[in-house]
Amino acid sequence: MTESLQAQRKAEHLSLAEKLYPSSHRENSFAQVRLLAPALPETAVAEVDLTTPLGPLTLERPYFIEAMTGGSRQATKVNRQLARLAKRHRLAMATGSMSIIFKDPEAAASFTAIREENPDGLVFANLGAGANLAQAKQAVDLIGADALEIHLNALQETVMAEGDRAFYWRENLAAIIADLDVPVIVKEVGAGMRAESIAALAQLGAQLVTVAGRGGTNFAAIENRRNRKEDLTFLEDFGLTTPESLLEARLLATDQRPTILANGGITGPLDLVKALALGARAGGIAGAFLHRLITGGEAGLDAELTRWEEQLPRLLALLGCRRPADLTRVPVVLNAALASYQAQRRDQLNAKMG
To answer: What pTM did the predictor assign?
Structure first.
């Protein structure tokens, strides 16, 4: 049976994400961040507890399998593999965008497959910011989701030949946040967030915000590769990196700042620890896990997830931390470019408030 145009697009996204993985990760923005470890950590690996509260949610580890795919036959296979590994390693898992189910009902099976493989795990549904409350409830109900991710993807839509060109999202977001029965995570998908946007989301009631920055899966590059009408490569380096976005959140007063999650360019446990030290409560990983799955199969990603489980407690103990939240007390040194960015943005925000 021929797949719908929407399903074919989802398959293209999956293929291009892997094909462009080397170029998307050519620069590690987390290399701009150094952590200063104590000579006397006064802790032990066995004492580290990775349990991570996220408001009404609790993660067993401060990272999860971030949104990747759905909607096609290939996506169904990938989602089954990811769900089995999420169950085995007790990780939360987000689906790819479920918006396709409203146009192509056959695509629902690529998402319900996740619950079939992992009936009791933490699963996050995922929709674009143009979705309304009724659609949000339908997506959550379809897979019995524990939370809903709403992704903000203006850059991707701009580059996508068939993408949206109007981005009026506040009303829908406010309604979904206020009336949905599960927690809502509002997230970017690779262009990062500045402080003003994070504060605006908090004012709408958002309690969980993912500042997914440039440095991971590059949807601008993916859509530009698919675009047959015009060349928009100049937008492929648009936006903020994940460390820049985390620094943006730190510029806000505590009462303006929701719980922050990080995504975008986290390729290993050390990147995650740096993100947590910069204020993220947890990290979502997509590209690095997908790459390992495609190149090494399910067994390869299984081994990678085991490596994370072994190395993360060692890193925390090395830094004198017993819980992920303790990492915010670790001294951080930024390289000159990132420190200059932070200083300029602080001056801009102070001038605006003054």
So the answer is: 0.95
